[in-house]
Design a protein that fits this description.
By secondary structure, the chain is an all-alpha fold. It contains eight helices and no strands.
């Protein structure tokens, strides 16, 4: 389903999180700030941070897979590939993918063609590829 990328996660979810406490971690502060930014302004590393924290998956997984799809062809030519975003996406549990069975299938096709992945992400990609595809709900 297309999403208005001029909207933030807060606007899409209709839920504003309160400001984090002053003594909280920089990770928590950053996640709160990123939820307030329009989706279209988020960079791949920022999407990786949100997805890795299981924030806004309903909206962000499709966007992340789109980015991974768009950059996969360049990776075959030796260009840089965003391992952080790939890692964040493929390490989401089967329960997250149960809401997106078609997207999970698309991602499996995308990652199956990737070559020369770093060691830290290669193991996670292999685990994702071995994960049974969710049934359509």
């Amino acid at each position: 389903m297309p999403v208005d990328r001029s909207l933030s996660l807060e606007q899409l979810e209709g839920q504003r999180w309160p400001d984090p406490p002053e003594d909280t971690t920089s990770m928590v502060k950053n996640v709160h700030e990123l939820r307030r930014r329009p989706l279209g302004e988020l960079q791949a590393h920022e999407l990786a941070r949100l997805v890795g924290q299981n924030v806004g998956l309903h909206w962000l997984l499709p966007l992340a897979v789109e980015i991974l799809r768009d950059t996969a062809a360049n990776q075959a030519d030796g260009d840089w590939y965003d391992d952080d975003l790939l890692y964040a996406v493929v390490t989401r549990g089967a329960d997250a993918w149960g809401h997106f069975p078609a997207l999970a299938r698309d991602l499996k096709e995308i990652v199956a063609g990737l070559k020369n992945l770093s060691r830290y992400v290669k193991t996670e990609v292999e685990a994702f590829l071995a994960m049974p595809l969710p049934d359509i709900r």
